[in-house]
Amino acid sequence: MRAISQDVLGDPEVLQQVEVARPAPGPSQVLIKVHAAGVNPTDWKHRAMGLFLGRPPFVLGWDVSGVVEAVGIGVTLFKPGDEVFGMLPYPHGVGSHAEYVTGPARAFAHKPPTIDHVQAGALPLAALTAWQALVDTARVRPGDRVLIHAAAGGVGHLAVQIAKARGAYVIGTASAGKHAFVRSLGADEMIDYREADFTEAVHDVDVVLDTIGGDYQLRSLRTLRPGGVLVSILPVPGEGLAEEAVRLGVRTELLLVEADHTGMNAIAELAEAGTLRATVAETFPLAEAAKAHALGDTNRTTGKLVLVTDAMDAAGGTGE
After folding, report:
1. Spatial separation of the C-alpha atoms in residues 237 and 255, rounded to whole Å
2. What is the mean pLDDT of residues 7-20?
3. What's the confidence (pLDDT) of residue 312?
4. What does the pLDDT average to over 113-134?
5. What are the residue ranges spanned by the domains of the chain?
6. Are 279 and 155 in contact (CB under 8 A)?
7. pLDDT mean over 102-106
8. Residues 8-35: what's their mean pLDDT?
9. Top-level class of domain 2-123+278-316
């Protein structure tokens, strides 16, 4: 099968299409013929720095949407021919930027028939991150005031929709040119981070979702009401974060996304209802993975980048 691999860390040019043996599913695993696979910031960071994966060679990719080709012993949830989507176990279950991939059956859910593989391939990692932050960790409830940083980004724009589906009042930060887009997703209030200090513009929020890290963590604490919670998806605490949280009477949580069958089923339900939809900035054939990474490196995309394994998927999956 074809796969996108790298032998060294570095710029997008280190990514090469290679031929490797097709994997076989082990116990409790499924083999999936990949139709589409999202490309996330964690992919280009691992390409450049290794992070959790260490030194190459490795095949990147955690998002996957495709068709079950075979099942391993003990699998009861899926049968060959089922359309599924999900996130491979993060970080060491990596490998979806290929024509076939294996993963635990319970990392996946049935793909809603109302969305195509490109849409389904764009959702898992980013949507699970938002779901686990807002629902599992912060337990967002109707009427909660939720501040979402980088609300037009891959995680952010899905978090806006999930928070609204929970009945929250959503405040987003983004550059002015992206305000109309984020409002179209349901945001109630927008802040231009280039022109305004969000710590002065926002007060008494129940939940902050930090997708940026750095000093945003510490500064965001000042926007919370007593008893509120900051959830950061950059799981490295800023200096003095814990101490400042105690002083202000708020809580901090640092989250690393996990493969999650229950979460994927919840995301599938929202997608089926039309309540949750990924904006796809651009699709690329699998062989052009380096181009997707180069675009991702600019940090200027709105929404998600997706690799597709054949022309039919690419033709059907552009746009919102």
Report:
1. 11
2. 98
3. 53
4. 98
5. 2-123+278-316, 126-254
6. no
7. 98
8. 98
9. alpha beta
For residues 281-308, give the mean pLDDT.
95
User: Where are the extended beta strands (E) located within 89-204?
Assistant: 100-104, 108-110, 145-148, 169-174, 189-192
Q: Are 226 and 203 in contact (CB under 8 A)?
A: no
What is the architecture, at CATH level 2, of domain 126-254? 3-Layer(aba) Sandwich (3.40)
The answer to whether residue 319 scores a pLDDT higher than 60 is no
Q: Which of 165, 187, 195 is nearest to 273 (CA)?
A: 165
Residue 95 in tokens: 């490998």
Distance, first Cα to last Cα, the chain = 30
With CA atoms as reference, report the closest residue to 168 among 205, 115, 118: 205
Residue 301's pLDDT band (boundaries 50, 70, 90)? confident
2-123+278-316 and 126-254: same fold? no
C-alpha–C-alpha distance, residues 319 and 46, integer Å: 27
User: Cα torsion for 96, 150, 187, 261, to the nearest 10°?
Assistant: 30
Q: What is the mean pLDDT of residues 247-263?
A: 98
